[in-house]
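Reminder: ligand-aware prediction takes two inputs, not one.
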Amino acid sequence: MHIVKVRLGDRSYDIEIGSSLDRAGERLLELGLGKKMALITNPAVRKLYGQRLVDGLKQAGFIVMSVEIPDGEQYKNLDWANSIYTALLINSFDRKSALVALGGGVIGDLAGFAAATFMRGVPFIQVPTTLLAMVDSSVGGKTGVNHPMGKNMIGAFYQPKKVLMDLDVLRTLPKEELLSGMAEVIKYGVIRDSSFFEYLDTNRGKILSLDPDALGYIISRSCEIKADVVSADEREGGLRAILNFGHTVGHAIETAENYTMRHGYAVAIGMVYASRLAHKTGLCDQSVPDRVETLIRSYGLPTDLSALSRKPSSAELMATMQIDKKAEGGKVKFVLPKKIGEVAITKEWDEQQLQELLA
Ligand code: NAD
Ligand code: GLY
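Here is what comes back for the chain with nicotinamide-adenine-dinucleotide:
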């Protein structure tokens, strides 16, 4: 097992990579939680892994109740958060009772938001089961739900007490979901670590065949990079925004596709456009967008707007970007690569150039 620490003073926590689901209960004993726990999951993940986790928790003396949320992004909303509160109240949960999220980013974001707000905050444990959740959404404390008018528009920064990752669960993950997570893994190489970027290029076969050492390494390195950034800037006052590389155009694509495109796929396309914009802006040479695009394509991820079910106009995409959370005073801050391994956060980019790229 490999441990990555997220250092946030008295809210610091461990990410345990390679921690077996069966031993989750004993891994949580050191946290001094109350006896009662609520497992938040969806029917598909529950069927695969729910019983093993519940057995492990019970063996350690916890009393476990389960709350099932239907599978899908459309259920990450206030109505389903309310169903969690109701279940907790009916079962007389108190402020020491913990919520355990078993699932991908949808379950993690929803359960985290419920944990942040129930009785003004109860302990929260993340047990991510998708690659995307392992390398991104379960780490760093962004929790939230969608509003009919926008994705992730209601939320809270709320850190988990621990993140437990059993990498064997990735064996049942559909290939498209694995690739979606790979987009975020590639992101870490571009924003922070050129040798990691090269590792992803050289070890594609091992990674895609789920070689345990390769998987362990890419998840650990991604978590280390995210933990470093979050420890330095928890609430996105500055540095944390680099994690949004590819997400500005990516979110506009997700909106255009009515959230039917996987998050990582949209981010993959967004990273290619951001890299091309960086070159047009004079921040980097042509080799940077070329290398980013080549690596993304080599993993079977989409690289341009032809992957969408309909081609949105550049004006439509630009308009969506303006109302993104990352816009400030009407001008969108872009994360643009200067070279592989280093990015700039900048408002100095040309709308005309981006419009031409998107057209
Ligand atoms: P997801 O949670 O919808 O999971 C994808 C699918 O995989 C689901 O159908 C799920 O049932 C299934 N699944 C999960 N684990 C499985 C397993 N081990 N075997 C088989 N099937 C499995 O999608 P996701 O990509 O994990 O998460 C996307 C969500 O994460 C979005 O809502 C996005 O906004 C959010 N997100 C949050 C952050 C953050 O910092 N909080 C960061 C990135 C993304
Ligand atoms: N997923 C971006 C962040 O956690 O800041």
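Residues 42, 44-45, 48, 71, 73, 76, 103-107, 109, 129-130, 132-133, 136-137, 140, 142, 152, 169, 172-173, 177, 180, 263 surround nicotinamide-adenine-dinucleotide (ligand 1) (CB under 6 Å). The chain has 14 helices and 13 strands. We will return to this case in the review session.
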